[in-house]
Design a protein that fits this description.
11 helices; single chain; 4-stranded parallel beta sheet; disordered N terminus; 4-stranded antiparallel beta sheet; alpha/beta; 303 residues
Length: 303
């Protein structure tokens, strides 16, 4: 499945008490119009769909109450899902209490941002009452451990969420707070971070792997991905464990894959199509892409 596209719109800049610079905010009516255009042009609702679009205003501290409400209304009228960032750190909680006089979870509930068609990134600072709201409504959480560590946001109570029935999957966030975007490494970090915060038995290798497979499918409200079984999408990745990094650990391949050095994919079949073979992408000329990326990065750094 292709990465779920999201709008990531911002409409409240610093001059109005928001986080982003005024230069990057957009008109709210234009945001909604363009979001509808993209959904109608590109969203595929069918089973086994490879491309879906979700409505995703950036965060409560970068968009208005009205846009959050209207975004939810638009999404549900078009039958697509909702996504934003919520309760990522202490500043988020303080902003919500100061601006809205409520917790982030209460704010989400007030604006219609709870339900099986919604998932929120991070939720590091989701309180006990918020966890219960998410569990009761089936609202999902995209846990991004590497991003949370890079930004020193804290340790999300993922084990508590999972135990209480909150759908939890794994994400990498974006390049602004994740320099690797390596999903298997995210699995490893999720496991280790829960152990740092809550003890050595908090999460096993298999628990962590489940978050990114069945957990991710549950968050996305999909029953056609997340497991290798009859009737499911023909997507799989394979790893070559015949390497020094895994020597001595092959008595438990799952534990080896999660505990040891994060491996690169050796074989990837997506929708029955070979995308990676012998560790090499088959769909692009990778050296050309890397050269272009580095050139553009230099331009960005040099202003």
């Amino acid at each position: 499945m292709r990465f779920h596209a999201s709008r990531g719109a911002m409409s409240v800049g610093r001059s109005k008490g928001g986080l982003p610079p005024d230069s990057v905010v957009e008109d709210e009516a234009a945001i909604l119009r363009d979001t509808q255009r993209v959904i109608e042009a590109y969203h595929d609702p069918k089973r086994f769909a490879m491309q879906r679009v979700v409505v995703a205003p950036c965060s409560p501290f970068s968009v208005s109450r009205d846009l959050m409400r209207e975004a939810a209304t638009l999404a549900r009228s078009l039958g697509v899902s909702l996504h934003t960032h919520l309760a990522e750190n202490d500043n988020d909680v303080a902003y919500s209490r100061e601006k809205f006089n409520c917790t982030p979870a209460e704010y989400a509930e007030e604006l219609g941002w709870l339900g099986r068609d919604v998932w929120h990134a991070h939720c590091v600072k989701l309180d006990d009452a918020g966890i219960q709201k998410f569990a009761t409504t089936g609202t999902g959480v995209a846990h991004c451990p590497c991003s949370n560590m890079r930004l020193a946001s804290g340790i999300a109570p993922v084990c508590t969420m999972h135990r209480r029935g909150v759908p939890v999957g794994l994400g990498v966030d974006g390049s602004a707070s994740n320099d690797g975007a390596h999903m298997l490494n995210e699995v490893r970090q999720a496991m280790l971070l829960q152990r740092v915060g809550f003890g050595p038995s908090a999460m096993t290798a298999r628990d962590a792997l489940e978050l990114t497979t069945l957990g991710g499918a549950r968050v996305l409200n999909r029953d056609d991905i997340g497991a290798l079984a009859p009737g499911m999408a023909a997507d799989l990745v394979a790893f070559d464990l015949r390497q020094l990094a895994f020597a001595g650990a092959l008595h438990d391949p799952v534990a080896a894959l999660v505990f040891c050095q994060s491996a690169h994919v050796a074989l990837s079949l997506i929708n029955g199509r070979t995308v990676v073979r012998d560790g090499k992408l088959t769909t692009v000329d990778l050296p050309v892409v890397v050269e272009q990326h580095n050139r553009l990065a230099r331009q960005l750094v040099n202003g």
